[in-house]
Amino acid sequence: MDVPPALFYTKTHEWAKREGAELVIGVTAHAQEELRDIVFIEVPAVGRQVKQGEPAAVIESVKAAFDIYAPVSGTITRSNQAVAKAPQAVNQDCYGQGWLFAIAPSQPEEASKLLSAEEYHKLIEQAAH
Questions:
Q1: pLDDT of residue 39
Q2: Can you tell me the distance from the alpha carbon of 125 to that of 129, in angstroms, rounded to the nearest whole number?
């Protein structure tokens, strides 16, 4: 299972990468493998305020639709319109071109509650058993 060590993770299978004052958000390899063929992505509008844990985006696969949750509270600073137009990018490169949106955190301390790569790996291992 691909769990890059430099990223942070949530129990709901989002990843977060610090880029300057922003956190870039996407879904993990585990999540996209569970979803399989992603056919639609709704990314949040730039400027939207989100609270930690609330739905910020939607991903639909041929199997089902899932909310993507904000790992921290803040303002959406960027949305990946390319992935909205070509949702298969998430299946092809979930940690790169398949990113979904970026947040400028309003409560940076919330990021300390995110999981390390090791903690996330344990979480998905436990769920498999």
A1: 95
A2: 7
